[in-house]
Specification:
Chain A is built from 12 helices and 14 strands. By secondary structure, chain A is an alpha+beta fold. Chain B has 3 domains: 204 residues, Alpha-Beta Complex (Aldehyde Oxidoreductase, domain 3); 244 residues, Aldehyde oxidase/xanthine dehydrogenase, molybdopterin binding domain (Aldehyde Oxidoreductase, domain 4, 2-Layer Sandwich); 147 residues, Aldehyde Oxidoreductase, domain 4 (2-Layer Sandwich), CATH 3.30.365. In chain B, helix 10 packs parallel to helix 19. Chains A and B meet through helix 12 of A and helix 3 and helix 20 of B. The complex binds flavin-adenine dinucleotide.
């Protein structure tokens, strides 16, 4: 396999990168683990590649007050191994540890993953459950985009041409309990369905909850019905059962079918995984 | 005698170069002035070619030539297994499609350019005007009236219809009189062989000497020479075919494809070296697939569990053309093995080869025998269930009793040796079968779904004798050859016609020579895969390299030994009859201290200063060997699975394999072959399967969609063996390359169905993925309202 020919740039600053990316046909290259396969198949034929891999300002994971800030160039492996992530957003560490295989985790970046927005990706589900904010820089300056607004459709996000994700800001979940559970596709290891739960209980009663499901629909989705089913409950078997039914309904006719699994399976598995996620908390 | 090298698990000698990246594959070959070829392929499964316009492509800078069928006068790509009495339709298969394309990936043009990138860019500019025709991907549907027709020569798309029967009247009678008949529709899904190295070819034309060298990733360079010389119109002695390091084949590098022929043709036409390397997507769309049967099978038995008859009708998908060995697979390699290890007196197999608008099908690890083993083992389990009998008990009622030299089954073939009960008993012992059944029963009371699958199998391998090849329409011989050449100082070159490509014969064949002649393994090189260096052979497939080539080698070594004995006798001034041999030393009987080593004898025979009367100088022997029969390895496998009823996921808990390939030359290599074989067979059962849409587009054309098994699917395999020598092989060895694949698919399948027994599920189409198993459970729950926990 060989990609169509392209020009290659390696900018020294984010500003230069953004400027290069504003040219028609230009595309950012991060870990290359979504972009290069697409180029090899000639599905993507960018005329210019802007390699952002040396922009160290986009690296690093740090905690700022009660916010976790993850640089866009952080790899899945770095996120999975980060004590800060494990403390403040444990489910993201789990999700990143289940991405693909070691090569993919060592090359693929969270920025690239979110920008690419494959419906079967793992990180978007967690990012959405945590009400994260995506920070970007483009020709017209910086933006802070709520995760709920960022994911638009299959492979489609709210990024202007040439706009780069610089970091992901996640409100600390350390006061909550979190879990991410997925059914991996046997070939790609992408999520057939993935469910993220972030929950707080007091006296056994669930008083804060966020649930998101990925893989099942065109983009990661908040399971609002399932959240309501559990909020205020004691997480007893009946409540879990009701939540499982609710999450299937939340997905509803938006569930995707492919040659591996049909919509019915995905809806049902969201329920199964939700129960497992809650039990794993 | 020192500890014997035969039977010791020394490390594979080929591995250091392979695991340090020093192996030289076809893709590594770079020649001066080399051009790169890209094949323009059809995006349609079935279409008429109305017009091809290459002008834009030819105009690209760096493009040297663009050719279509109209530019060449090449012969058709032949099919080489012309099954007699089957009304086989030899349809034309031009190296580049002429009026019509018949599968996605069928070649329509070639681009030759200074670099691969340029060739690919230009290939995208070749404009082909197609008129789409209707596709048909299911072989049973393709054989029905009104189905889209691929070849005018083959009405109803039927490529051949072959019947093997122990006697139709007997079969009919047995079914009519049976107490119990059990039927099954089996879909042997299409598999995509996924060797690590894709196919590749480099051709170099020496116009001065009018000689062509073709490096090709192949399992059988001599067959490649035979066929490519014919298609490309080159004298056979002017074509040298070299299979350098080959990164796996599994049957798919046995056929001769258009691509290699086109590489050769273009190299000659342009008088420049030409390289073609297949991409992975290309590999999945154009390299032959395996299996693809739809089978209707049934078994008849008495109520006591004595099986009286088995018959089947097979629709075997051939793809768009007949690949090299394709017709032999659902017929000879399949139907003759219908009775497996059982004394079934009445058998009938009807195999219908059908063209479909899909990638051609050919051998894939096991080739025909996995399908045969699957159907008889599946039917045995279903029958046991119907009779309310333990499947092991049912098998034992029908096993062929132990035999050391020949047992003829109702299909007429004669197995060489077998002790099926021996292997079964050993496997059951390792598994602790009775205890397993207790644990299963207990687990069921707790809502856990554990299943046990037991398979007893025999396979036909060690492909030969040549007379059988001829009688069954195989357009080649099935013998092997070896030359053992000892240098003056006693270093050994073993030149073999077979073409190992990962199986480890560079090690095991050195062990054979060392065992026979006493040369240390480090002094022995095994050379293969080059038609100009090695004697003729018919390739590595059908677990035949050791079973046939190994026999040639042993006999060649014994010639060396006798010559060395005669030389040593001469040097020791004794009569040949008085000379004893042990571990590389010849001595007069009773005086082992006065000896001549085989190296001494070799040196003196090579110097030839003083030879015994009548002896030729040198120390070299050559042997051609045509086996008197196939070999029939066998064994018993047991799997334990647990199913998660909530997700449908199958968890493989234990896998026990007891295989008998006769004496083991190197038990570590045997184990490696068994492990790899198991992985592939289990892959078919649980995750692998090519999927086409109705338009004939391959939906599993990438490794992110086509699921090959991964290490984390497997427990530690529990491997053991029994030893039943082949009576006709000089050292009794059989073959082990395919055993694991043949036995494991039904073992896993039966275990899964056993686990699902509480739901009353009788069959699920493979692969048994979580969504499929889950759907079957849902359906069963809806139908029976049981097991709903
Ligand atoms: C075999 C395999 C298995 C995989 N399995 C999984 C899995 O199980 N789960 C999962 O979630 N993912 C999986 N992935 C995808 C993986 O996570 C990718 O790494 C990730 O989706 C892309 O990140 P990247 O850094 O490689 O991006 P690239 O491939 O470099 O870029 C991807 C896209 O994002 C754009 N981009 C990159 N960085 C930025 C940025 N900072 N701002 C704006 N746009 C940007 C690029 O222009 C491009 O369009 C798998 C990939 C492979 C090859």
């Amino acid at each position: 396999m060989c990609p169509a020919s392209f020009d290659y740039h390696r900018p020294a600053s984010v500003a230069e990168a953004v400027q290069l990316l504003s040219r028609p046909g230009a595309k950012a290259l991060a870990g290359g683990h979504s972009l290069i396969p697409a180029m090899n198949l000639r599905v993507a034929q960018p005329g210019e590649l802007v390699d952002i891999g040396r922009l160290d300002v986009l690296r690093g994971i740090r905690v700022d007050g009660n916010r976790l800030i993850i640089g866009a160039l952080s790899t899945h492996a770095q996120i999975a191994a980060s004590p800060e992530v494990q403390k403040h957003c444990a489910a993201l560490a789990t999700a990143c540890s289940t991405v693909g295989d070691p090569a993919v985790r060592n090359w693929g970046t969270i920025g690239g993953n979110l920008a690419h927005a494959d419906p079967a990706s793992d990180p978007p589900t967690v990012v959405l459950a945590c009400d994260a904010v995506i920070h970007t820089q483009g020709e017209n300056g910086q933006r802070a985009i709520k995760a709920a607004d960022f994911f638009v459709d299959v492979f489609t996000v709210d990024l202007q041409p040439g706009e780069l994700i610089t970091s992901i800001e996640i409100p600390s979940q350390s006061h909550r309990r979190m879990a991410y559970v997925k059914l991996p596709h046997p070939a790609s290891r992408y999520a057939v369905v993935g469910v993220c739960v972030s929950m707080h209980t007091s006296g056994g009663v669930c008083d804060q909850i966020a649930i998101a499901v990925g893989g099942a629909t065109a983009k990661a989705t908040r399971a609002t019905g399932a959240q309501s089913a559990l909020l205020g409950s004691l997480l007893e078997a009946e409540a879990l059962e009701a939540a499982a039914i609710a999450i299937s309904a939340d997905i509803g006719d938006q569930a995707v079918s492919d040659i591996y699994a049909n919509a019915t399976y995905r809806r049902a598995m969201a329920g199964v995984l939700l129960k497992r996620a809650v039990k794993a908390l | 005698m020192a500890s014997r090298i035969f039977g010791s698990g020394i490390k594979r000698r080929e591995d250091p170069r392979l695991i340090t990246g020093k192996g030289k594959f076809t893709g590594d070959i770079m020649l001066p002035h080399m051009l790169h070829m890209v094949v323009v392929r059809s995006p349609y499964a079935h279409a008429t070619i109305k017009h091809i316009d290459v002008t834009a492509a030819a105009a690209v800078e760096g493009v040297v030539a663009v050719y279509t069928n109209a530019d060449m006068t090449l012969a058709n790509i032949p099919c080489a297994w012309l099954i007699p009495n089957s009304n086989l339709k030899l349809v034309p298969h031009p190296p580049l499609a002429k009026e019509k394309v018949r599968y996605v990936g069928d070649g329509v043009a070639i681009v030759l350019a200074e670099s691969r990138d340029i060739a690919q860019d230009a290939a995208d500019l070749v404009r082909v005007d197609y008129e789409a025709l209707t596709a048909v991907v299911n072989p049973e549907e393709a054989s029905m009236d009104g189905a889209p027709l691929l070849h005018v020569e083959a009405p109803n798309n039927i490529a051949f219809r072959w019947i093997a029967s122990s006697g139709d009247a007997g079969v009919e009678k047995a079914f009519a009189e049976a107490d119990v008949v059990v039927k099954e529709r089996i879909v042997q899904q299409r598999l995509q062989p996924s060797s690590m190295e894709t196919r590749a070819a480099v051709a170099q034309w020496d116009s001065g000497n009018e000689e062509m060298t073709l490096w090709v990733s192949s399992q059988n360079p001599h067959i490649a020479r035979f066929v490519v010389s014919g298609v490309a119109g080159l004298p056979e002695h002017k074509l040298r075919v070299i299979a350098p390091e080959v990164g796996g084949g599994f049957g798919a590098k046995l056929p001769i494809y258009p691509d290699e022929v086109l590489t050769v043709w273009a190299a000659r036409k342009l008088d420049r070296p030409v390289k073609w390397v297949e991409s992975r997507s290309e590999n999945y769309t154009v390299t032959t697939h395996g299996r693809d049967h739809i089978e209707y099978v049934e078994i008849a038995a008495t109520k006591e569990g004595k099986v009286t008859a088995l018959r089947g009708k097979v629709y075997a998908g051939m793809g768009g053309y007949l690949s090299t060995a394709a017709p032999g697979i659902p017929t000879i390699a399949h139907g003759l093995m219908y009775s497996g290890v059982y004394t079934i007196p009445n058998l009938r197999c009807e195999s219908i080869g059908v063209f479909t608008t899909t990638t051609p099908v050919d051998a894939y690890r096991g080739a025909g025998r996995p399908e045969a083993t699957f159907l008889v083992e599946r039917l045995m389990d279903k029958l046991a269930d119907k009779l309310g009998m333990d499947p092991v008990v049912l098998r034992r009622k029908n096993l062929i009793p132990p035999f050391a030299n020949g047992y003829t089954v109702a299909m007429g073939i004669t197995y060489d040796s077998g002790n099926y009960e021996g292997a079964l008993a050993k496997a059951l012992g390792i598994a602790d079968y009775d205890q397993l059944r207790k644990e299963q029963a207990e687990a069921r009371t707790k809502g856990r779904y554990i299943g046990i699958g037991v398979t007893t199998y025999a396979e036909l391998c060690g492909f030969g004798p040549s007379a059988v090849a001829g009688a069954t329409g195989f357009q080649g011989g099935l013998w092997e050859s070896a030359i053992v050449r000892v240098s003056p100082v006693g270093k050994v070159q073993v030149l073999i016609g077979a073409s190992p490509h990962g199986q480890g014969e560079e090690t095991t064949f050195a062990q054979i020579i060392s065992d026979e002649l006493g040369f240390p393994v480090k002094d022995i090189d095994v050379i293969h895969g080059d038609t100009s260096r090695t004697p003729m052979g018919w390739g590595t497939y059908g677990s035949r390299t050791t079973a046939v080539g190994g026999a040639a080698l042993v006999l060649a070594a014994r010639k060396i030994k006798e010559k060395a004995r005669a030389m040593a006798a001469h040097l020791l001034e004794a009569a040949v009859e008085d000379i004893d041999y042990d571990d590389g030393k010849f001595f007069v009987k009773g005086s082992p201290d006065k000896f001549k080593t085989i190296q001494d004898a070799t040196l003196m025979a090579t110097l030839a200063w003083n030879l015994p009367p009548g002896m030729e100088p040198g120390m070299e022997a050559s042997q051609f060997y045509d086996p008197p029969n196939f070999t029939y390895p066998f064994g018993a496998h047991i799997a334990v699975v647990e199913i998660d009823p909530d997700t449908g996921k199958v968890d493989l808990k234990r896998y026990i394999a007891v295989d008998d390939c006769g004496p083991q030359i190197n038990p570590v290599i045997v184990k490696g072959q068994v492990h790899g074989g198991l992985a592939q067979g289990i892959g078919q059962a649980l995750c692998e399967g090519a999927v086409y849409d109705d338009n004939g587009q391959l939906l599993t054309g990438a490794m992110t969609d086509y699921a090959i098994p991964r290490a984390d699917m497997f427990p530690q395999f529990e491997i053991d063996h029994t030893v039943t020598p082949s009576p006709h092989h000089p050292i009794g060895v059989k073959g082990i390359g395919e055993a694991g694949t043949i036995a494991s698919t039904p073992t896993i399948y039966n275990a899964v169905i056993d686990a699902l027994k509480p739901f009353g599920i009788e069959s699920i189409n493979m692969p048994l993925t979580a969504p499929r198993v889950w759907a079957a459970i849902q359906e069963a729950r809806a139908n029976h309202a049981i097991g709903g926990r």
